[in-house]
Design goal:
Blueprint (H helix, E strand, L loop, with lengths): L2 H7 L7 E6 L4 E6 L3 H10 L1 E6 L2 E6 L1 H12 E3 L5 H6 L5 H8 L2 H14 L4 H10 L1
Antiparallel strand pairs: 1-2, 2-5, 3-4
């Protein structure tokens, strides 16, 4: 099998999903893999100009990146659902993530999303090559 065949036979990123168990809730959420374009858009959304004296620098709000990653990658539940927004008195889906999940749960889901999106694969491959 050639590398071309591998690419042509691979599942599209939007079809790659996984269940992430949230112990406190006793239930799982469904997440999907994100593409590089998705992640670029999220980072752009969470980047703001900040004045530093006479200069203006761009800063990335990493907490917002985490929330937006979860919003974009979560298939179920929909954090923009009207009932969830009302229940948590959230202004938008990112705010709902912040209010509905504990800090450790956010970190756990973010790690799962990044792993599902291929960010931990390289480390595994490097270890295999070393051995």
């Amino acid at each position: 099998m050639s590398i071309l065949d591998s690419f042509l036979g691979a599942k599209p990123a939007v079809e790659i999903t996984e269940e992430v168990f949230i112990k406190r809730l006793g239930d799982s959420i469904t997440i999907k893999a994100l593409t590089g374009e998705d992640i670029d858009q999220i980072r752009d959304q969470a980047t703001y100009p900040v004045k530093n004296g006479k200069k203006t620098e761009l800063k990335v709000n990493e907490e917002e990146v985490s929330r937006l990653l979860i919003v974009k990658a979560t298939v179920e539940p929909n954090f923009a659902d009207k009932q969830l927004l009302e229940y948590y008195k959230a202004s938008d889906a990112g705010d709902c993530v912040q209010k509905a999940l504990l800090a450790g749960e956010i970190a756990h889901i973010q790690t799962a999303v990044l792993s599902l999106s291929g960010f931990n694969d390289e480390d595994d491959e490097i270890d295999e090559v070393k051995n």
